[in-house]
Predict the 3D structure of the following.
Amino acid sequence: MCETIATKRAAQITVGLAQMKVWLWKEFLKSEFGRTPSIADWENPMVNFYAVRWYLSRNVEVHSLLDISRIYTGQVNRYYAGLLDEALALLEV
Protein backbone atom coordinates (compact mmCIF):
# COMPACT_ATOMS: atom_id res chain seq x y z
CA MET A 1 0.00 0.00 0.00
CA CYS A 2 2.75 2.47 0.95
CA GLU A 3 4.60 1.75 -2.29
CA THR A 4 1.53 2.80 -4.26
CA ILE A 5 1.11 6.08 -2.44
CA ALA A 6 4.72 7.12 -1.77
CA THR A 7 7.22 4.87 -3.52
CA LYS A 8 10.40 6.67 -2.43
CA ARG A 9 9.33 6.99 1.19
CA ALA A 10 8.14 3.38 1.34
CA ALA A 11 11.61 2.15 0.34
CA GLN A 12 13.07 3.92 3.40
CA ILE A 13 10.77 2.26 5.96
CA THR A 14 12.56 -0.21 8.23
CA VAL A 15 10.86 -3.57 8.61
CA GLY A 16 11.45 -7.02 10.01
CA LEU A 17 13.22 -8.21 13.09
CA ALA A 18 16.45 -6.85 11.62
CA GLN A 19 14.88 -3.41 11.03
CA MET A 20 16.44 -3.13 7.57
CA LYS A 21 15.07 -0.67 5.05
CA VAL A 22 12.67 -2.08 2.46
CA TRP A 23 15.08 -1.31 -0.40
CA LEU A 24 17.80 -3.34 1.35
CA TRP A 25 15.41 -6.25 1.84
CA LYS A 26 14.61 -6.16 -1.88
CA GLU A 27 18.29 -6.10 -2.81
CA PHE A 28 19.15 -8.90 -0.36
CA LEU A 29 16.37 -11.28 -1.40
CA LYS A 30 16.85 -10.61 -5.11
CA SER A 31 20.61 -11.17 -4.98
CA GLU A 32 20.55 -14.15 -2.63
CA PHE A 33 17.27 -15.91 -3.49
CA GLY A 34 16.02 -14.34 -6.72
CA ARG A 35 12.71 -13.16 -5.27
CA THR A 36 10.95 -10.22 -3.68
CA PRO A 37 10.37 -9.86 0.07
CA SER A 38 7.25 -11.01 1.86
CA ILE A 39 5.91 -10.41 5.35
CA ALA A 40 6.91 -14.00 6.18
CA ASP A 41 10.56 -13.10 5.40
CA TRP A 42 10.43 -10.10 7.71
CA GLU A 43 9.09 -12.24 10.57
CA ASN A 44 11.41 -15.23 10.10
CA PRO A 45 14.37 -15.07 12.55
CA MET A 46 16.67 -17.12 10.33
CA VAL A 47 15.96 -15.06 7.20
CA ASN A 48 16.63 -11.96 9.30
CA PHE A 49 19.91 -13.44 10.55
CA TYR A 50 21.09 -14.04 6.96
CA ALA A 51 19.86 -10.60 5.91
CA VAL A 52 21.90 -8.94 8.64
CA ARG A 53 24.94 -11.07 7.81
CA TRP A 54 24.60 -10.04 4.16
CA TYR A 55 24.20 -6.38 5.12
CA LEU A 56 27.23 -6.39 7.39
CA SER A 57 29.43 -8.27 4.92
CA ARG A 58 28.87 -5.65 2.24
CA ASN A 59 29.83 -2.73 4.46
CA VAL A 60 32.79 -3.54 6.67
CA GLU A 61 34.77 -6.37 8.11
CA VAL A 62 33.14 -7.54 11.33
CA HIS A 63 35.25 -9.17 14.01
CA SER A 64 33.01 -8.98 17.06
CA LEU A 65 29.54 -8.20 18.33
CA LEU A 66 30.90 -4.81 19.38
CA ASP A 67 31.64 -4.07 15.70
CA ILE A 68 28.05 -4.96 14.87
CA SER A 69 26.77 -2.72 17.65
CA ARG A 70 28.78 0.19 16.22
CA ILE A 71 27.31 -0.32 12.75
CA TYR A 72 23.73 -0.52 14.02
CA THR A 73 23.82 2.16 16.72
CA GLY A 74 26.56 4.49 15.49
CA GLN A 75 28.91 3.76 18.39
CA VAL A 76 30.18 0.79 20.39
CA ASN A 77 27.27 -0.32 22.55
CA ARG A 78 27.94 -3.13 25.04
CA TYR A 79 24.26 -3.44 25.96
CA TYR A 80 23.27 -3.97 22.32
CA ALA A 81 26.14 -6.44 21.84
CA GLY A 82 24.84 -8.38 24.87
CA LEU A 83 21.34 -8.51 23.39
CA LEU A 84 22.81 -9.81 20.14
CA ASP A 85 24.73 -12.47 22.02
CA GLU A 86 21.56 -13.65 23.77
CA ALA A 87 19.60 -13.70 20.49
CA LEU A 88 22.30 -15.72 18.73
CA ALA A 89 22.31 -18.22 21.60
CA LEU A 90 18.54 -18.62 21.25
CA LEU A 91 18.91 -19.17 17.51
CA GLU A 92 21.76 -21.61 18.20
CA VAL A 93 23.96 -19.84 15.65
In short: The chain has a mean pLDDT of 85. The first strand starts at residue 14 and ends at 15.
